[in-house]
Amino acid sequence: MGAYILRRLLLVIPTLLGIMIVNFTLVQFVPGGPVEQIIAELQGGGDVFEGFAGGGDDVQTQSGAPNEEYVGARGLPPEFIAELEKEFGFDKPPLERFLTMLGNYMTLDFGESYFRSISVIDLVLEKMPVSISLGLWSTLIAYLVSIPLGIRKAVRDGSTFDTWTSGAIIVAYAIPGFLFAILLLVLFAGGSYWQIFPLRGLTSDNFDELSLLGKIGDYFWHIALPVIASTISAFATLTLLTKNSFLDEIKKHYVMTARAKGLSESKVLYGHVFRNAMLIVIAGFPAVFIGVFFSGSIIIETIFSLDGLGRLGFEAAVARDYPVIFGTLFIFGLMSLVVGILSDLMYVLVDPRIDFESREG
Fold first, then answer.
1. How far apart are CA 123 and CA 91, in angstroms?
2. Cβ-Cβ contacts under 8 Å for 220 (sequence gap 6 or more)
3. CA-to-CA distance for 181 and 165, rounded, in angstroms?
4. Does 167 share its domain with 213?
5. Which residue ranges in the chain fall short of pLDDT 50?
6. Strands of the chain, DSSP E
7. Does residue 40 lie within any of the structural domains?
8. pTM of the model as a whole
9. CB distance 288 to 278 below 8 Å
10. Residue at which a domain ends, from 92, 110, 130
11. CA–CA separation, 56 vs 180, rounded Å?
12. What single-letter DSSP state applies at residue 189?
């Protein structure tokens, strides 16, 4: 197992490098960089993309070449634009910028945000608790609901209960997360019906003045709707996974032998089947968590005005804040690859019979 883990760790480097190369290359072809963002603001505060609507005077862009399509820099001297490019480092060739960035990343220096005057790592640490809260609670609730429901569906496979719950699961899985989030806001956050939950934020304005129990209650009061909205898709997937795992185990010979010995159905189900059927479900916990953590955070955090990593990435992409974009991409990519290795270790931990080295051989 040690050799397998070592190989996986060594593969992290080229994989992460490939991710960074592809995304850095794509960014070079995207119009409207940070220099253009500043120029757009100086020319009246309009959106940077409005400048690509028509022709205009020749100005310099990030590459230093004239650009006749961008009209946001009319009236600004080329020397000023060149100074902006130098300040952001765009006076250097793309390859040199990329190699410098990778060199800094090797020392965990992710640079400073162009527009926030704060280091990327401090910005990520500041926003991470919100996203971890969403991902952790959504994953835990999905497991707490999906496992009992999946077991019940497996035991009553083909019954009316199984049919109706399967229909409800399919509908829940088909509903986009953002649409369900908006529906929750309309129904329960003062949209058109009931004002039960707060509309935005993770805590109330008077949070610091509350008692310990008051702070806990306030936290869960605010996070209830976002967690429900981000749980819906993971809930459906886990329920069907649990059901199918139990069905596979129930049909095996050791289950029939246990029943033939006169063991009760609950002892057979929870004393024998449960342990084996739950291997794949429990071992997949890290992957499920990281999936919920990344996939739904952007939309959910934006809709509920939560200041987390998903919203940070979205705002950085809109503002072309490249240090934040590439810094978070590197950190998230590294986290995803490490979680993949942890998932494999979880499989081996819950089932020692699994041997990844022999499979590779």
1. 26
2. none
3. 22
4. yes
5. 48-73, 361
6. 59-60, 66-67
7. yes
8. 0.71
9. no
10. 92
11. 45
12. B
